[in-house]
Amino acid sequence: MITLDDLKTIKSNTLSRICLRSREDKANVESLYTKQVLLCRGTGCTSSKSDKIEDEFIRLLKEKNIDDKVDIVKTGCFGLCEAGPIVVVYPEGTFYSHIKVEDVETIVEEDLIKGNVVKDLLYKESISEDKIKAIDEVTFYKKQERVALRNCGLINPEDIDEYIAYDGYVGLYKALNEMTPENVIEAMKDSGLRGRGGGGFPTGLKWEFTAKAIGDKKYVLCNADEGDPGAFMDRSILEGDPHSVIEAMAIAGYAIGADEGYVYIRAEYPIAVQRLQVAIDQAKEKGLLGKNIFGTGFNFDMEIRLGAGAFVCGEETALIASIEGQRGMPRNKPPFPANKGLWDKPTLINNVETYANVPQIILKGSDWFKTLGTEKSPGTKVFALGGKINNTGLVEIPMGTTLREVIYDVGGGIPGGRKFKAIQTGGPSGGCITEENIDTPIDFESLNALGSMMGSGGMIVMDEDTCMVDIARFFLDFTVEESCGKCTPCREGTKRMLEILEKITDGKGELEDIEKLESLAETIKLSSLCGLGQTAPNPVLSTLNYFRDEYLAHVQEKRCPAGACQSLLQYFITEDCIGCTKCARNCPASCIDGKVKQRHVIDVEKCVKCGACVEACPVNAVIKK
Amino acid sequence: MEFTFDWEDNKENIKKLNGIIEDHKDKKGALMSVLHEAQDLFGYLPIEVQRIISEGLKVPLAEVYGVITFYSQFTLIPRGKYQIGICLGTACYVRGAQELVDKVKKDLSIEVGGTTSDRKFSLQATRCIGACGLAPVMSVNDEVYGRLKAEDIPEILEKYKNM
């Protein structure tokens, strides 16, 4: 049986291993190492071969005989995916970016052995006025406040001792020993934490409903079926700090009276699945999961259930059906899962990011939590920033930060000097926000008021080259594919909407199609069974609202203002043409004319838009417009 | 495209499958877990495998088939030796992933979800793989290629064709 003293011992024993990178306790502890190399092994950086970089570090440290002085720590996501793979060297916090396997030797030789910063490999913003800035001082991180991501990029997710060294599982201890289940629920209600999966339902209230529900057996579920295209915060939390979710689920189990939990996670997230399994096994081994936790008589056990790629399973009743081994189809609510959930027992479901906040709220108190964010939306929110933006990655900001701050201060603005057009939030369930509203503070209400939503937190930035009609079509295509088919409005309605959008982007749209789209959208919103269908029309409605002129240009002028819709584009040969005749010789439709050494011309009537001329041209003189 | 299931070649795997079924038989909601493990074994879930699972778990064959066809991760046709996945998450789409899909389709003459007749390549449009910093992204088995343009595709495919 584990005790609080055991946690304290683990913490003090681990400090000498982690103090170089620790925010606190640096002065009082003697470090076991002279340097520490933190290496991002999140999905993004691993995709850019950070696994090979790790191997190379290990090999070289051994070869140079400094493997007892320098420690290599693999971590979860650092957030700034654009700069990956990322390597940070402590105690200085030197921030190296875009590292390749070949660079490892230089870092080892120069930085780790000689103690010189390798300036060429620094993240571009890490030097100002000739001074080297540590990772915390980089602008990208400055406006961020990390609660859910507090340990991501800081600890080794596969080492429970490191989690404990950052006061992990003390929240669970405190809940079990110093609080009644009612106290815990009260604290959650008082904190004002709202569900981070998108809906924003007050978490404490949900816990209270489940606690009060009558049943001999209850379950705690974690929704890790993050299916939003362009959102990866839940996966990153599980990859970078799986114990925070395990601890939170145990606290939730205590609060509502459950002794069993499941994490429902996509099989497509192999790194997250593997690290979560490692974490569960370690927690069991330490007695932090299982029977009689901290000697309080409280039992809690959990296991992983793999999803198989169905977006609708993010919907709680569908997720439950899937764990039960059925097709993941949602059902009508009520009864809510709080009363009738998994195998008809009272069930609590929260998403990963929501859980990641819980241990901190219990540990530091709800008053602390309320100092972050806004009055109605306390705390922080993690966003996956992507699309046409310089600093793609994962950011966590206090609620109430404006979109402008996120796009320009944290995100570093739009690449290539292009013009900002819109930001799409909330994935397929959300909408677009334009320049006009860019100073809106981000919270649940204000995004809803703009016809968008928080959603799980995908933020895709679009510039002038993005066609908004095409984006609406893209999301509808997704919805049609992911609709479970149970209710007619969603199954048939979204398909009809997609057909109309395809017609418009193909240049065959008519004015009445826009009216049809709107009326279909309203009907589907009102009559669908679950959240997927109810929100599916949002991207269409919001783009129609803000970018109706683009729809009209497609329909009336058969023109795509952004130059993105293939069928509406024409190939054109510019003055750069050197008259080499290659395009004409490669054109399958024989529609290019011109004399040798003279500018050629395309007959747009005959052109089949195959692009063969673009590929053939040696001087890039063929363009689409 | 029809692919036939070879009983003789899969003898060992069937034995393993029966073991998996035995392990899960008494667990509630075991079907999904068994399907995942079966697909890992065979690479796909042909009707022959579905029958074994149906009988072993005492779940009607129609239900097994229903579950398999519901989820996009489960497949009824074999995947190729090299599984090409092109991310169609929003970030990748905005940065031109559709052009990559079109190029691969054209170069391999297969549709999304299809496998070439020599079972060398299969093509999937995947949802966000979480490497948005590298958008647009294509993966071939575990190898990830980021910041791609359609022109880069032939060279990558060529590499695997000769492997």
From TrEMBL, chain A:
UniProt entry keywords in alphabetical sequence: 4Fe-4S, Iron, Iron-sulfur, Metal-binding, Oxidoreductase
4Fe-4S ferredoxin-type domain segment(s): 569-597, 598-625
Listed EC numbers: 1.6.5.3
SMART domains named among the record's database cross-references: NADH_4Fe-4S
Top-rank taxon: Bacteria
Alphabetized CDD domains for the sequence: TRX_Fd_family
Class in the EC hierarchy, top level: oxidoreductase
GO molecular function terms noted in the UniProt entry: 4 iron, 4 sulfur cluster binding; FMN binding; metal ion binding; NADH dehydrogenase (ubiquinone) activity; oxidoreductase activity
Transmembrane segments annotated in the record for this chain: none
InterPro entries registered for this protein in UniProt: 4Fe4S_Fe-S-bd, 4Fe4S_Fe_S_CS, NADH-UbQ_OxRdtase_51kDa_CS, Nuo51_FMN-bd, Nuo51_FMN-bd_sf, Nuop51_4Fe4S-bd, Nuop51_4Fe4S-bd_sf, Soluble_ligand-bd
Family label: Belongs to the complex I 51 kDa subunit family.
Protein name according to UniProt: Iron hydrogenase HydB
Source organism phylogeny: Bacteria, Bacillati, Bacillota, Tissierellia, Tissierellales
Encoding gene (name): hydB
TrEMBL record, chain B:
EC number: 1.12.7.2, 1.6.5.3
Keywords from the UniProt entry: 2Fe-2S, Iron, Iron-sulfur, Metal-binding, Oxidoreductase
Gene3D superfamilies for the chain: Glutaredoxin, NADH-quinone oxidoreductase subunit E
Cofactor: binding details: Binds 1 [2Fe-2S] cluster.
Cross-referenced Pfam families: 2Fe-2S_thioredx
GO molecular function: 2 iron, 2 sulfur cluster binding; ferredoxin hydrogenase activity; metal ion binding
Family stated for the protein in its record: Belongs to the complex I 24 kDa subunit family.
Name listed for the protein in its UniProt record: Iron hydrogenase HydA
Species whose genome carries this gene: Gottschalkia purinilytica (Clostridium purinilyticum)
